Amino acid sequence: HILGRYYLWGEYVEKDEKRASSILVDLAGKGHWGSRGWCHKYGYGPYEKSVEKAVECYRKGVEEGDEVSLSSLGVCYDNGTGVDKNEKEAASLYHRAAEKGYPEAINSLGYCYDIGRGVEVDKKKAVQLYSQAADKG
């Protein structure tokens, strides 16, 4: 999934949305709920572009403990995309994904602690999390 994201956003590789789509659609077809959610988010392959269906996929992935789904659903709660905005729930989901070592969630949780979004401000914790995320790439 991370490789697909890199191609989608042009991180570490030249941006290539077709390649990103191909990777994510392949993973979605193999039952990866986080990737399937992203396919719905962007309307890739046979997946209808639908925020509601993306959220549904993330929820199924969360039930299985998938870190991509945990982090992606956290973003939804953070922004109020497809769900009611709930910063505490977002921080909780980022925390669960961060415990599994997912760099994007670790960084997002660091930001939560940095500005007090859904958690009490804790600058030391924020720096620790930012550093941990950077170490993971």
TrEMBL record:
Protein name listed in UniProt: HCP-like protein
InterPro entries registered for this protein in UniProt: Sel1-like, Sel1_AlgK, TPR-like_helical_dom_sf
UniProt xrefs under Pfam families: Sel1
Family assignment from sequence similarity: Belongs to the sel-1 family.
Source organism of this protein record: Palpitomonas bilix
